[in-house]
Structures are given as C-alpha cells and as structure tokens.
C-alpha cells in the first residue's frame, strides 16, 4: 500500500474510533465502559493508549535472574552512555547550525556522521512509513524494557506499563516509583536512567552487525546494478512520477540491466535501432482536446508528460523499480548513473 493511502487509512480509523468512543461514553453504554476499564484502553483524538499492570511481576522475576550479571550489564551501560553524551551533544549542535535536513530524493547527501531528524514525506519516503513505525516500536519497547529491568534489579517497584499510538507514532513508557528512585545512591540511580539508552545502543550495534553480515551473504552482490545518482530538475523525467535519487534501473526497452556495462550496452544497441513510436488511442486525444499539447492533465502528478519535438533524437524506455515506465531521451548522460 502506498504511504499516502496508509496515512489516510490510519487517520480515518483514528477518527472512527474517536467518534464511536464519544458516542458510547455519552450514552453511558456500560458494557463498553467496563470493557475499556478492564482492558486499560483509552481513546482520544488521534491517539490510542493502553495501560497494564500485568507485566509488573514478569519484570520483577526477570530482574531476579542473575542479579550480579545484570549489575555489571547496566554498569557498562552507564559508562557507555556517559561517554556518548559529548558525541550526542556535538551531533545535535552540528545538526542545528550545520547543514539542514535533506529532502527525499536529494542527490546531495551529507558526508560524515550527522544527526538528522526523520520526517515522513520530507526526508523519508511515505512508502517507508510502515518500516518507520516498526523501527520506533521495537526501539521504544527495548528502551523501556531496559528501564523496567534495571529498576527491578535495584529494588524499585514497576507500577505499570503504557503504550501510545499518536497517529502513526508508537510510544512506550514504564511507570516506576519515583520516591524509591530518588532514595537510591547516585550510581544505582544512573543504572536505571541509562538503561534505556544502553539497550538502544546495543540494538543499533546488532543492526549494524546484521547489515554487515548481509553484505557477505550469498544473496548479496557488490558493485552490481545501476542506480540514479542525479536528476536534472528541468528534465522531463523529474517530478513525483519520474525518476528519483537512488532509483534502481532494471531494464531499458526490455533490455535487462545488471551492471554499468550492460546498461551502456543496452543504450548503444537501442541507439542503432529505428526510432520507437509510443502510440495512444485516438479516443484519448479527442477527450483531451482542451488540454495543452502535452496530452496530460495538469492535476495528474503520477503521469509523465512530454512534448513532441522535430529532431533526430530517439526516445528510450526505462523500466525502474517504481513499477512504471518512463520515456527518456537518448541523449541522457548515462555517465551520471552507476
């Protein structure tokens, strides 16, 4: 499902749930009220909340398993978190006063290590909203699990757990006794406060390890394939329906592309062939008489429109990973593709 439609569906579901919740509560529908209280669910506008105390005993039992090993584990987390604080501060300041966020599809990617906010639709494709939600959910759950486990290890009671869904943003939280937390020694308190960050660091390292391992698997090929590195904003293939940065080119005029060599070979072979004509039914043209000679409606952002030119240049057909076909002039600088 396209990211825009996914956001629209989630928004409609939020509105429907909020409307039904408002109706049932205003009518004092007792079965519904008892159900919401028993399950810990709460509905508000564009937000769903779930609260439970069923996991309190689980956290306490897990914290009693190998307590000395857990103490060492969370002590290492305190040291790592303190060492990363200057790095995090530097990245935040660099992100604020350095280069601004890069838009989705921009070829000018930041060099080096940069902390950049991720905004769906701006520098994150809307098609990746599902992956974005899953990553936030996994990271948030492990973060709060670290706090709960460390709190149980230090004898601080876990009062409950909460999960929120704010439109598409999943948020998790644990409730612990602040009075007991403030009575602990500084180092023991730091074990609890740094446990969440420490678990996120370990999760990031594990993800990097998996990514590195995948690059050495039999299913991964290095230095193969062709991708778009830059698109001229004035080009006919630019725009929402056109080519974007990092698009994967799989074929040219049904000539399969595997690498740079096969891509050049396809271009040279097609350049020697007669010009290809792409025809449309005359009925479509009759319906579009009131539109400019591009034959495309200006409100169709998912179509690529071209003007007819009287020159000797031939047209090419590129098949990209977005599952659409686009026309590309044969004079396209294929050296800009890798």
TrEMBL record:
GO cellular component: cytoplasm; endomembrane system; membrane
Pfam families the record matches: Peptidase_M50
Chief location category: membrane
Location relative to the cell: Endomembrane system
Entry's EC annotation: 3.4.24.85
GO biological process terms held by the UniProt record: membrane protein intracellular domain proteolysis; regulation of response to endoplasmic reticulum stress
One of the record's GO molecular function terms: metalloendopeptidase activity
Enzyme class, broadest EC rank: hydrolase
Transmembrane segments: 6-24, 70-93, 190-214
Keyword terms, alphabetized: Membrane, Transmembrane, Transmembrane helix
Biological role: Zinc metalloprotease that mediates intramembrane proteolysis of proteins such as ATF6, ATF6B, SREBF1/SREBP1 and SREBF2/SREBP2. Catalyzes the second step in the proteolytic activation of the sterol regulatory element-binding proteins (SREBPs) SREBF1/SREBP1 and SREBF2/SREBP2: cleaves SREBPs within the first transmembrane segment, thereby releasing the N-terminal segment with a portion of the transmembrane segment attached. Mature N-terminal SREBP fragments shuttle to the nucleus and activate gene transcription.
Name the record gives this protein: Membrane-bound transcription factor site-2 protease
């Amino acid at each position: 499902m396209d990211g825009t439609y996914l956001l629209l569906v989630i928004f409609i579901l939020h509105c429907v749930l909020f409307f039904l919740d408002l109706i049932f509560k205003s009518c004092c529908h007792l079965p519904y009220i008892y159900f919401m209280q028993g399950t810990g669910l709460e509905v508000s506008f564009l937000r769903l909340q779930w609260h439970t105390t069923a996991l309190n005993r689980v956290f306490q039992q897990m914290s009693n398993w190998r307590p000395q090993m857990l103490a060492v584990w969370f002590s290492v987390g305190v040291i790592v978190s303190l060492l990363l604080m200057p790095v995090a501060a530097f990245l935040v300041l660099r992100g604020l006063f350095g280069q601004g966020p890069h838009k989705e599809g921009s070829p000018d990617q930041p060099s080096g290590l940069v902390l950049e906010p991720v905004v769906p639709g701006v520098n994150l494709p809307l098609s990746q909203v599902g992956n974005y939600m899953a990553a936030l959910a996994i990271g948030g759950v492990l973060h709060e699990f670290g706090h709960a486990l460390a709190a149980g290890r230090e004898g601080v009671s876990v009062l409950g757990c909460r999960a929120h869904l704010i439109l598409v943003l999943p948020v998790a939280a644990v409730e612990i006794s602040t009075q007991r937390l403030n009575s602990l020694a500084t180092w023991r308190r730091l074990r609890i406060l740094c446990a969440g960050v420490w678990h996120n660091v370990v999760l990031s390292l594990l993800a990097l390890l998996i990514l590195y391992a995948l690059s050495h698997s039999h299913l991964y090929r290095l230095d193969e394939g062709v991708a778009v590195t830059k698109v001229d904003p004035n080009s006919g293939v630019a725009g929402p329906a056109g080519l974007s940065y990092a698009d994967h080119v799989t074929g040219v005029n049904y000539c399969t592309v595997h690498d740079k060599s096969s891509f050049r070979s396809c271009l040279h072979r097609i350049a020697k062939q007669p010009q290809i004509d792409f025809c449309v039914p005359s009925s479509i043209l009759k319906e579009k008489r009131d539109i400019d000679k591009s034959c495309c409606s200006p409100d169709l952002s998912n179509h690529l429109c071209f003007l007819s030119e009287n020159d000797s240049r031939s047209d090419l057909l590129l098949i990209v990973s977005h599952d659409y076909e686009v026309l590309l002039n044969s004079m396209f600088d294929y050296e800009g593709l890798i």
